[in-house]
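Protein Record: Sequence and Backbone Structure Tokens
======================================================
Scope: a single protein chain, as residues and as a discrete description of its fold.
Tokens: labelled as protein backbone structure tokens, with as many entries as the chain has residues.
Position: the record begins directly beneath this header, with no further notes in between.
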Amino acid sequence: MQVTKDSIIGDVLDMAPEVAPFFFEIGMHCLGCPSARGESIEMACAVHGTDADELVAKINAFLAK
């Protein structure tokens, strides 16, 4: 699985629930709510004031292991 900034958070979590802590680290604690599950990583990062490229790289590095 390759994650991009356009990846929908719900889809990412369905495929790899073990990456949830990476979202918690940026302050996104409502991963189960419908709006969070339907947001792209880029949208969530904008709301939480964090770098989407950095989060995507971190998730992809984790998934590559």
Q: What stands out?
A: The helical segments are 9-15, 20-25, 34-38, 41-48, 52-64. The two ends are 12 Å apart (CA to CA). The longest helix spans residues 52-64.
